[in-house]
């Protein structure tokens, strides 16, 4: 069985098989977690994302979907899984799309034979989702993953602030054992 961890920190410093990027649909970098991952991974990541845009994703990555790239300069990581959260400020308010971000990221990481994954608060922050709602959705998906045969052994949620971490811990405490 897998374990779920909640920490405050910088996702680019994690030593895991996969980190999840809360990407924008262009996949070409941006602010927040997306910008930090692109800066840390270096120019190779941007080039691979440009290749994806010119081939399989000409319209960008749709909200809820996930795609993997190499990790480049993130030497402690094997893969980056990119997912696009729904933007509440743009009227994207369906929690099912947010759930798919977590489910598809975990499924893709499992398909890459990953044993550990670090995930940010997808959708919280600039996309306007409440941390508690995001945490509840994420915890439900992580809880299902940890019970799957061959599932990911360590799911680590990496939050950017103490308050966010405490909110996620509260959500975890709500989950049944």
UniProtKB/TrEMBL annotation:
PANTHER family named among the record's database cross-references: GANGLIOSIDE INDUCED DIFFERENTIATION ASSOCIATED PROTEIN 2-RELATED, MACRO DOMAIN-CONTAINING PROTEIN
Gene3D superfamilies in UniProt: Leucine Aminopeptidase, subunit E, domain 1
Protein name: Macro domain-containing protein in non 5'region
Taxonomic path: Bacteria, Bacillati, Actinomycetota, Actinomycetes, Micrococcales
Residue ranges annotated for the Macro domain, each copy included: 1-176
InterPro entries per UniProt: Macro_dom (IPR002589), Macro_dom-like (IPR043472)
Signal peptide annotation: none
């Amino acid at each position: 069985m897998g374990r779920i961890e909640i920490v405050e920190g910088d996702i680019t410093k994690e030593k895991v098989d996969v980190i999840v990027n809360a990407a924008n649909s262009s996949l070409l970098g941006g602010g927040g977690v997306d910008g930090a991952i692109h800066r840390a991974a270096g120019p190779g990541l941007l080039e691979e994302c440009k290749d994806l845009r010119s081939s399989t994703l000409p319209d960008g990555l749709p909200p809820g979907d996930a795609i993997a790239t190499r990790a480049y300069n993130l030497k402690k990581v094997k893969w980056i899984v990119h997912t696009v959260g729904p933007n509440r400020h743009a009227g994207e308010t369906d929690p099912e799309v947010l759930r798919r971000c977590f489910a598809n990221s975990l499924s893709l990481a499992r398909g890459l034979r990953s044993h550990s994954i670090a995930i940010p608060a997808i959708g919280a922050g600039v996309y306007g989702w409440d941390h508690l709602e995001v945490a509840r959705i994420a915890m439900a998906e992580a809880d299902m993953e940890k019970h799957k045969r061959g599932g990911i052994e360590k799911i680590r949620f990496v939050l950017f602030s103490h308050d966010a971490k405490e909110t996620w811990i509260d959500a975890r405490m709500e989950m049944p054992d």
